Amino acid sequence: MKIIGVSGSPIVQGNTDRIVKAILEKTGSETVFVNLSQIKFDPCRGCCHLCAETNMCPVKDDLHPYLELILKSKALVLGTPY
Asked: Taking the model in full, what pTM does it have?
């Protein structure tokens, strides 16, 4: 199982990215890092709560593959700049 690191910082390779990556490196596990400012995704559209039935958003955007990884991951590391 992978450990997923997510940075919410708009500054690529900034302090938040570096801290999340450092934590991931220390785990010694297989990891995946994503900076949310580098992928295209849409806010919730309120589409009849389909996600509540399936635990997966029906909108296929760039975030979708990461949602699947998160559900299967061993741990999640979240970094925010503030």
From this structure: 0.84
